[in-house]
From TrEMBL:
CDD domains: HMA (cd00371). It comes from Natronoarchaeum philippinense. GO terms for molecular function: metal ion binding. Signal peptide: none annotated. It holds the Pfam family HMA. InterPro entries: HMA_dom (IPR006121), HMA_dom_sf (IPR036163). Residues 1-64 form the HMA domain. PROSITE patterns: HMA_2. This is Copper chaperone CopZ. It comes from the Archaea. Keywords: Metal-binding.
Length: 65
C-alpha cells in the first residue's frame, strides 16, 4: 500500500533526506520517497498514517495525510 503525506517546511535536499530517514524509521515502512518541490512524501508499506505524520513532525516539519 502507498500512502501520500503532505509535508510543509522543506527547503533543501537535506530536508528531504531528514524526512526520508524519519519515515524509514517507522515500523512497517518498506520504502519512502520525498519530493520537496511537490511537498509530498510517498510511503510504501503497511505503516499507520498517524505514525508517519508523527515521525515527520518529530523531525521538525508540518505534515498531514
Amino acid at each position: 500500500m502507498t500512502t501520500i503525506i503532505t509535508v510543509e517546511g522543506m527547503t533543501c535536499g537535506h530536508c528531504e533526506q531528514t524526512v526520508e530517514e524519519a519515515l524509514q524509521g517507522v515500523s512497517g515502512v518498506t520504502d519512502a520517497t520525498v519530493d520537496r518541490e511537490n511537498e509530498q512524501a510517498s510511503v510504501d508499506g503497511d505503516a499507520d498514517a498517524t505514525a508517519l505524520v508523527e515521525a515527520i513532525e518529530d523531525a521538525g516539519y508540518t505534515a498531514h495525510a
